[in-house]
Amino acid sequence: MSVVENSQTDRILAVDDTRDNLILVQTILESEGYEIDLVSDGISALAKIAQSPPDLILLDVMMPGMDGYEVTRRIRNNPHLNYIPILLITAFHESSVVEGLDAGADDFIRKPFDTDELLARVRSLLRLKHSLDEQRKMARQREDFVSRLTHDLRTPLVAADRMLGLFEQETFCKISPEMKQAIAVMIRSNKNLMQMVNTLLEVYRFEAGKKTLNYESCNLPEIATEVVSELTPLADEKNISLKLDISQLDNSGENTAYVMGDALELRRVLHNLVGNAIKFTDTGGISIKIWENQHWVNVAVADTGYGIAPEDQATIFERFRQGRNKRSGSGLGLHLSSRIIEAHQGKIGLTSEVGRGSTFTIQLPKK
User: Fold this and answer.
1) 167-182 burial, b for 16+ CB within 10 Å, e for fewer?
2) Best CA proximity match to 361, nearest among 299, 312, 309
């Protein structure tokens, strides 16, 4: 009876420099319904895997030229390959098993092997492969669904925003002050929802590798000045200060602090960091400081707000990681900011103390 557990025949690559061993493995596995490819050395195995990745690899440890350990390491270090289970075949003592497992192999079997044991180990590793493939497929489907959903949500949200704006302007008829106040609340709520949807859409574009950055020469002090100008009214409403400090730059910031990057995305990061600082600060103020050293342009956004608990700081940049503060949002803004900075070959970090405020720092390579 066939042991193949999925609707598609599993392909197994057997690698051994001894022809008789390959023929034996081929005979055993083909009789169970598996499709077998045979190669006799490590270089040929890597070429075969790159051309057509198998579902499982049976790999002899001792081969001339490139041994099974090195083949395993190269497979595991190839970022373009999905997970492929590797079953090492060895005739040696325990230390060779340890070395193989450390190199990235999943299991081992010693020569001369028992047929039933070989088939059991093959079935076990293929079950693991199928399970991981199914999880990866479900994750792709889930992300595709969310991406499509957020994209489709934008259309009615934009339409609602325009219609509410017309109501507020009394385009259709006169409205009472109470109604104007209610409409203003609806407009703010709708904008918050649209911002959340846009952020979620951008996150999934990054996750799917579909985000294209338009690199150009960017003046960070200029971008920061625009952000401060836009967000100052929010700070004024809370009676807190918002200041930009470029005093450590030569020529007061002119012809300095340039980076190669996407100006809109870098502006998004600064807008998010400063906006968050305003949200979580009730007294004191926020300062944005820009300076540079030999290789980096540095930005620090410091506030005198609530601060972030130590147990939350380690995961603050992870997707959907919300803070404990009741004002915390979706947990996407900081994750997106970190993805944007990473895409610019930069670094983002945090220092914070509960009750004393937080400082987010950004490092970007100088132009």
Assistant:
1) beeeeeeeeeeeeeee
2) 299
- pLDDT at residue number 13: 96
Q: Which listed CATH number (3.30.565.10, 3.10.310.30, 3.20.20.70, 3.40.50.1110) goes with 216-365?
A: 3.30.565.10
State the sign of the Cα–Cα–Cα–Cα dihedral 172, 176, 180, 183: negative
Looking at the domain that runs over 11-113, which CATH code has it been given?
Answer: 3.40.50.2300
With beta carbons less than 8 A apart as the criterion, state whether 75 and 91 touch. Answer: no
- Residue 292 β-bridge partners: 297
Amino acid occupying residue 64: P
Whole-angstrom distance, CA of residue 24 vs CA of residue 193 = 63
pLDDT per position as a tens digit, 200-256: 777 777 776 667 788 999 999 999 999 999 999 999 999 999 999 988 876 544 557
**Mean pLDDT (10-residue bins), the chain, 367 residues:** 56 93 92 93 93 94 90 92 92 72 90 90 93 84 71 81 87 87 88 78 72 86 93 92 87 69 91 92 93 91 90 79 54 85 92 91 91
Spatial contact of 314 and 271, defined as CB atoms under 8 Å apart: no
pTM over 0.85? The answer is no
3-state SS of the chain: helix, strand, coil percent to 5?
Answer: 50, 20, 30
Kindly state the tokens that stand for 262: 């996407």
